[in-house]
Predict the 3D structure of the following.
Amino acid sequence: MNGDDGLLSLDFLAGFTIFMVALVVVVSMVPGLLVGLQSSGIDYDAVAYRTGVILVEDPGWPVHPPWELYDVYHKDEIERMGLAVSRDTPNILLSTKIEKFFNGSADGSGFFDYPDDYRRRVLFGDYPYVCNISMSILGGPTYMVGDARPQGYGYIRRVVKVKEPSSAIIQDNDLYRAAVPSNRTQFTVRLNCSELLDPSISPAYRIDPRIERISVKIANFSYYLNSSPYATLKNVRFHKNYATGSLPFPYTSISPEKYRFQIDGVDTTLTPNAHVNSTLYLMLQPASLPIDPNSVIDIVFTFEEPAPDPPRTTISGLHLYDYNATNVTRPDLTFGVLEVAVW
Amino acid sequence: MVNDTGQLYTMEGVAAGLIMLLTAYIVISTTSVYTPGDTHITDMQLEQLGSDVLAMMDTPDTETGVSDLEVFVDHNNATGFEATFLDYCNATTGGAVDSLHMSATIYYQDGDEVKEYLFVPADDSWTGRESAVRATRWVQLDERSRGPPLDDRARAVLVEVLIWRD
C-alpha cells in the first residue's frame, strides 16, 4: 500500500538543512559574540594608570646621571622617563625632570619626538598607543604633550607636589664688606656636598647640585662699592676640594647647557673683566661640574682693579651654600596636578 | 494526499530565518555591556586620587614645616580640611573643575575602644545611592593641649574620606 504518511517533504528537508547550517555558523561565532562584553576602555585605563605610576612614583632610568641630563646625542640611552625626585618620594616631582619630559613635539622641534619617544619610554606595550599628558603647577606653567583627546580614552589623574631648585641671594650683608678694601679681592660661595647630600635629609627637601640648578645672586652690588660707581669683575672660577687650580670649564664662552652668568642683567662669559654696579647672577646647570658626594666646590668671584686705580669694592669673604635659611632659599613644595589620557 | 496545508513556504521561511539570525548577531555583537566588573576602574581612579590628595596634604611644604593634614586634624579644622581636600581633588590641568564631593570621619583609640567622630559631614549631593569610594591615611599627632574628643597625648588617628562624583 502506497501512501504519503511518514514521508519527509523536500521543502522541509531543505529548510531544516539550511537551519542547521546557520545554527552551526552562529554557534561558531559565539566567542566573537562575547567580545562586546569587554569594554575597550578597560585596557586604556590600565595603560593610563601604569603610565601615571611611572611618571609620579618613579625617578626614571638611568638615575646616575639622571635621564633628564642626557643630551640629544645620548637620548637613546634613556630607558624610562619618571618625574619623581627619588623612588623614596612618590608624588614629589622634580622641576628639572618635568621641563625635560614636556620638551617634546611631533614636528621634531622638541628634545623628544612624539609619539615614538613617549611610546618607548613611558607608555610601553606592543600596541601603538597615543596619549595626551598634561601637567599644571599652582601659580606656575601648564605643560602638555600629545594629541587632542578623542571621545573615548583611558584616563588617570594624579595629585603631586613639585620641588623647585634652591638659590642663594646675597644682599646688603655686612659680613661680606671688608674693613680695608684691596685692589684685588675675592668672594667665595662654597658648596660642601657631604653636607648638602646628607642622607638624613629627605630627597624632597635636599639641595642636590647633581640633579638641580644652583643659583647665586649678588643683589644691590652698590652696597659693596667703595665710593665708586662700579667695580671690575675679573673672572669667576670653580675650585674643587680646596685645590688652587680651577676646574676645567668653558670659562671664556657662553655655554647655556652649562651655565648662565649675568652682569647687571646682561649675559656674559665667566671671564668678563667688566664693570659691575648693580647685580651679579650665576646659574649652574645640574651636574655641570664634576660633583661627587664628598666634593667641596668653591665658586670664586675675583675683583681686580688696574694698579693705579683705588680699590672699588669692599666685597670679600665666604658664603656657604647650605641649609641655613639665611644663606640659601629653598622654595616650598608646590601643588600640581598631572593628567594622563591614553587611547 | 499532498497539499500546502501546514507547509513552510521555503524561500520566505529561509529569508526570515536568516534575517532574524543576522539581526540577533548584530545586536549582540555590537552591544557593549557595562558589567559590574568594570566599575572597579572608576573606583580605582577615585581611590588613587583620594589617596594622592591625602598623601600630599600630609606632606609639609618645607623641611621643618607641619603638614596641612596634621594641622587640620590637630586643630579640628573641618572647614579648612574640606576646602583643601576638594581644591586638590577637583583640580584639573585644563582649568575646569571636577565635581567630586566628600565626607570625612576620624577614628581614634580611647582606652580599649576604637571610637569615631564625623569630621566633615556630607553635603546635599549625598543621597546614599552614590558609588562612593574610601581613602584613608594615618596621621601622627604630637602631644599638645587640644579640645575634645581627642585628648592631649601624642597619638595616631585614622582619617577616612568618602569620595563620590555628582
